[in-house]
């Protein structure tokens, strides 16, 4: 029995190493690369959903082979809700791609898009521009109470795993995507580039909220992956208002909202919202809650040192929505 256990342990080591160091490249380069090749070839758009299904399966496998916190792989009566969020919000993303020809017909766009460039650089330009728009709206959602009402749905999570990325109120998802894609449409974004961008967004959200304990080395200071994004989900106002980028942390470095502490270890007690530990958990409840009086998520009592060993600084008036 001991020999068998030792063999199983030895066999699992290379598998864990492959997951720890190969998961991110396989998603960012491998699956995105497949998507870019298919989009460049003008393949039917159903390919987007097929590649996304492979990405989700890969994400779940990595989270079980090298989990950051094994407890986060366990259902908390939230799995069905999260799958509904994913289905609704991914449908919105796909629909936005399908609507681009219609929008282009309604809103004449100047031909500023670099159509003559190779396809890959076109996709990379689209990612950088979308990243800026989404980052700005994300930051605004932490500063403006009306936006925070809807963004708070995403911050109610108390475990970190891949599907959390699309666990958003559909209205907030729409606002974020509009901020990222509208500037691109106005300069003539091609539909095939938009398809590759849509897949890249979905894959990035899986990686950014992954429970996989993967390694990317110094790239963690530039790419908006899970090591940095966990700091964004700290439950205290001000402290959690960092690392807003979707694809990169470049804009966070420029806006001085970047934060990273290699000594911090995360668990569920640090996630969520200190002001709303009882935030509604059901899908329909989360759709309606931002429209209710309680949906502003303001604190009825302030978090103090006696309530937490890490109270939030009141850096701006909107901090009360996270306090």
UniProtKB/TrEMBL annotation:
Domain Fatty acid hydroxylase stretches: 123-257
Region called Disordered, residue ranges: 296-323
Domain of life of the source: Bacteria
Coiled coil (UniProt feature): none
Location in the cell: Membrane
Transmembrane domains' residue ranges: 21-40, 46-66, 87-107, 119-140, 177-207
Predominant place of localization: membrane
Matching Pfam families: FA_hydroxylase
InterPro entries associated with the record: Fatty_acid_hydroxylase, Sterol_Desaturase_Related
Keywords: Membrane, Oxidoreductase, Transmembrane, Transmembrane helix
A GO MF label: oxidoreductase activity
EC number: 1.-.-.-
Protein name: Sterol desaturase family protein
């Amino acid at each position: 029995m001991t020999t068998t256990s030792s063999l199983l342990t030895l066999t699992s080591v290379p598998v864990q190493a492959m997951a720890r160091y190969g998961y991110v490249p396989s998603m960012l380069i491998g699956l995105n690369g497949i998507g870019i090749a298919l989009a460049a070839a003008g393949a039917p758009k159903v390919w987007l959903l097929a590649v996304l299904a492979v990405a989700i399966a890969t994400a779940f496998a990595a989270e079980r082979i090298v989990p950051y916190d094994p407890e986060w792989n366990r259902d908390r009566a939230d799995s069905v809700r999260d799958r509904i969020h994913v289905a609704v919000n991914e449908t919105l993303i796909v629909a936005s791609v399908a609507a681009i020809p219609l929008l282009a017909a309604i809103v004449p766009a100047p031909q500023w898009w670099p159509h003559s460039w190779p396809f890959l650089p076109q996709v990379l330009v689209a990612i950088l521009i979308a990243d800026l728009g989404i980052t700005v709206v994300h930051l605004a959602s932490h500063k403006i109470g009306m936006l925070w009402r809807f963004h708070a749905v995403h911050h109610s999570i108390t475990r970190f795993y891949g599907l959390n990325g699309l666990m958003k109120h559909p209205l907030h998802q729409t606002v974020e995507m509009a901020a990222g894609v509208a500037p691109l449409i106005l300069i003539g974004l091609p539909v095939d580039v938009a398809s590759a961008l849509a897949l890249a967004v979905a894959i990035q959200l899986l990686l950014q909220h992954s429970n996989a304990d993967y390694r990317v080395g110094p790239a963690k200071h530039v790419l908006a992956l899970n090591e940095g994004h966990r700091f964004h989900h700290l439950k205290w106002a001000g402290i959690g208002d960092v690392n807003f980028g979707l694809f990169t942390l470049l804009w966070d470095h420029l806006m001085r909202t970047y934060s990273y502490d290699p000594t911090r270890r995360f668990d569920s007690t640090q996630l969520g919202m200190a002001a709303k530990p009882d935030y509604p958990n059901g899908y329909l409840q989360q759709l309606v809650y931002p429209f209710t009086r309680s949906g502003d998520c303001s604190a009825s009592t302030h978090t103090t040192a006696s309530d937490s060993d890490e109270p939030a600084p009141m850096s701006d008036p909107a901090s009360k929505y996270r306090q």
